[in-house]
Amino acid sequence: MKKLAIFVTVFFAIAHIYAQKIGVVDTNYILSKLPQYKEAESRLNSQISQWQSDLQKLQADYERKREAFENEKVLLVGEQLKMREKEVVDMEASIRNTIGARFGSNGEVNQLRSNLTKPFQDQIWNAIKTVSTKNNLGIVLDKSNNISVIFLDKKYDYTDAVLSLLGKNVSKDEKASSGSVSSGTLNRKEQNGKTSAKGKINSTQRKSLGDSAEMK
Prior knowledge:
Protein name: OmpH family outer membrane protein
Number of helices: 7
Largest sheet: 2 strands, parallel
Region (Disordered): 173-216
Number of strands: 2
Keywords: Coiled coil, Signal
Oligomer: single chain
Radius of gyration: 31 Å
Coiled coil: 41-75
Distance between the termini: 93 Å
Strand order of the largest sheet: 1-2
Family: Belongs to the Skp family.
Order of helices and strands: HEHHHHEHH
């Protein structure tokens, strides 16, 4: 009797899963198509490149200092030897700490990337919920998260539907922000008009300013 109850439970669970309408989305593809995300990612990559450049310079300085110490330590004695050795050891420790703090598993790069993606992931999640409700989807798979999809009929791929919904929301936000910018621009134009009415820089002054800028 107990086995029969387990069988019935499993059977209905499987039947329920198969009764669900399944959809698939590609969140990585969606992220790559969001202009705001690409701009933020570009700024982050620029910061990472700067940190990498700083680290390379630090490592080059360390190599020069270590090589100089190795070549000269036979001539050093007492406190001078200890001081030079400590400089090399401290610089090596500084490099290790910098690498760990910025590029480690819990470093600044991963934290910044997580902070960067989270608001966009929240937007995508809300859009997926809206699309799921509209299309009566019981299960939504993300094919960008190591899910091997051997074959997928296009009608079950809701990536474009989610992206379209996000695009509409993005357009609304951009229009709202551009409206406020336009207003600010008009105010600035009015201020500029008042300023130019008070006094204009003549051509000789402009040339003088241009010449001094070139000399700099």
